[in-house]
Amino acid sequence: MASSDAHPGQRPRPLSPHLAIYKPTMTMAMSIAHRISGMALYAGVLLLAWFLIAASADASSFTVFSGFLGSFIGRIVLFLATWALFHHLVGGLRHIVWDAGYGLEKPLRDQLAWATLIAGFALTILVWIIGYAVR
Amino acid sequence: MTDHPGDLRTPLGRVRFLGSGRTGTADAWVIHLTSVALIPLSIAFVWLALTLVGKDYNGVRAELANPIPAILMLAFVIAGIVHMELGMRSIILDYIGGEARAWALVVNTCFAALLALACVYATLRIAFT
Q: How far apart are CA B38 and CA B75, in angstroms?
């Protein structure tokens, strides 16, 4: 990961975080999942941009978009994007609570990490049930 | 050292761009600000997306042409992309070093800016045409 080519002959600058030297914990796993879901939302915003551009253009552009979204692959992508959004949203709420100085003690911090994992999944399922119900 | 008052770095360290970039506090503030703004905006966005499920081209455009959905979409897109750009920037700074870091930062910011412009333009075009 570290690149030393900028300063030949010099020891590489230290980079954070060094994940490999720690015993895995639930809070660590959710911290990594927060970053991964954030990166996944980068692709999710691309999907949103495609939607807005297609809807702002002509009807045939929109048909191409809704054809993709209605396909099996499109639904998988949208489901994963929904999950990434809710996981990142509840994970962000947990980080705000932690930033405020609450919930950092031993049993509660792991319970909060588990709660955000479960809540992110539950909200995703709930929204998809509503989506199929109102269709 | 007298040419750089308040700078405690050695001349060699300064040449190598070591030390604080001095934008950390401002970046941290903006990423927290947008994260708080995105709590209600994400809920509004999901609610808006659910109202669009099953609608065709004309139905989607008619819904997004209403002022409140259009304004919420613009706010969600701008706050979301600013937050996304800063988040990806901290990932780049954590994991990429050397010359590749500079290129990654350029690509990230330009891509996010282009995406924001495209989303804002498209949303306004739906609302006003």
A: 9
A12: left (phi over 0), alpha (psi -120 to 50) or beta: beta
Which residue type occupies A59? Answer: A
CB-based contact B113:B78 (threshold 8 Å):
no
Neighbours of B119 (CB within 10 A): 24
Question: Using CA atoms, how far apart are residues B35 and B87, in angstroms rounded to an integer?
Answer: 10
- Inform me whether the C-beta atom of residue B109 falls under 8 Å from chain A C-beta atoms: no
What are the pLDDT digits (tens) for B62-102? 999 999 999 999 999 999 999 999 999 999 998 898 889 99
DSSP letter assigned to residue B1? -
ipTM of the complex: 0.88
From the CA of B95, how many Å to the nearest CA of chain A? 6
What would the two tokens of residue A39 be? Answer: 């990166």
pLDDT in tens, A49-85: 999 999 999 999 999 999 999 999 999 999 999 999 9
Helix/strand number for chain A, H first, E second: 4, 0
Q: What's the CA gap between B83 and B77, in Å, rounded?
A: 10
> Structure tokens of B72?
């919420």
Chain A window 68-127: which residues touch B at a Cβ cutoff of 8 Å?
A: 82, 85, 89, 92-93, 95-96, 99, 127
Rg of chain B over Cα atoms, rounded to whole angstroms, equals: 20
Tell me the residue length of chain A: 135
